[in-house]
Design brief:
Helix content is 47%, strand content 9%. It has 395 residues and is mainly α. Strands 1-2-3 form a 3-stranded antiparallel sheet. Strands 4-5-8 form a 3-stranded antiparallel sheet, with no helix packed on it. Strands 6-7 form a two-stranded antiparallel sheet. Keywords: DNA integration, DNA recombination, DNA-binding.
Length: 395
Amino acid sequence: MSRPRLTIGTFGDITTRAVASGGFKARTLYRDWDGQARQVQSSGSTARAAERNLKEKLAERALRQPSSSFLSPDSAFGDLVTYWLEDIDLENRISKTTRNLYERNMRTLVLPVFRHLTLREIGVVRCDHFIKQMARISYSRAKQSRVVLRLALELAVRHEILPSNPMDHVSRLYREPHIPDALTAIEVNSIRRAITSWENGVDHVSGPLPDGQLGAIIEVMLGTSARIGEVLAIRRRDVDVTSTVPLIRLAITIVSRKGELTFRQDHPKTAKSRRVVALPSFASDAVRRRLAIAGMLDMDALLFQSRDGTPLTTANVRRQLRHVLESAGITGVTPHLFRRTVATAVNDNATVELAAELLGHTDTKITVMHYIRRSEQVNPATAALLDQAFAPEDD
């Protein structure tokens, strides 16, 4: 009667024998990831030591194999999560910030619900119910949960642990229609006045006086549609205010991660985000003033920086902007609101394609859906057209 075939990553009976030179040797058959059963052996001063050394060698051999060989439909969901995160690190295709966001969402939103379930117990009904429960809390939670749960289960399908992904059949999320907000010219100028008053030291109590950077940062955002991280990453070499048309190159961004020092990332959010933007006069004037105050800067020095020469953090700039504006009675203004304001202005006065190009978007649908405030005003030419079509006849 033949022995049952070993499964991947398992070993057969261990045999131990004494050797002529002294000591003992233990050996067994181990079935590797490629399906081949190979003899593995190890020595020791005693039979028990030889077996222990052999088992340690087999454990090390198992670590060198893809860990999915240890997963099955009866494995715990938490084991799949560990394997999924390891796979993300091996692929190294997404940014560390996104990777950390995935892990945070998985551990805080999904794992508390699925931790004690095996993979075969996670079906369409359970996933659909979970996403709907998240949606009752917020659309954002449901969306974040859906993304990471789908990715983890998709890996299980791709590595032949599950036959299909139950998330493929979960009902679509519904979100109330959202119209992006944008600032008017009057509101922009009110913000400018509030920042100028603060930078001039009005009502200043104690501490160092403002250095004028906040106002310049806002003008650059209004003049380029750049993200706050892109503005804070602008170097001296990225600026040309001496040419007929002043230019700024947006090609890198500032990144702040929990537990790490803020640093300059050598690429922006997407490939399309690398762009050279012509500056309107108000933005180029702000850059010139900033250069004059900063003095001689090394070509790789940041245009905006702390007093110690380190990068400004996006969180600190947001906090400072909120403090200054709330002190002036202005609420609800974030750096991203300036990006939507620029997109709306360009769309209203030119085309959505030009707005998308300025923002660095690959698809105008993103620009329309998330960045452009829809105007309620219908072209008044319709009145003349309808007069022509339905004017009453003369008596």
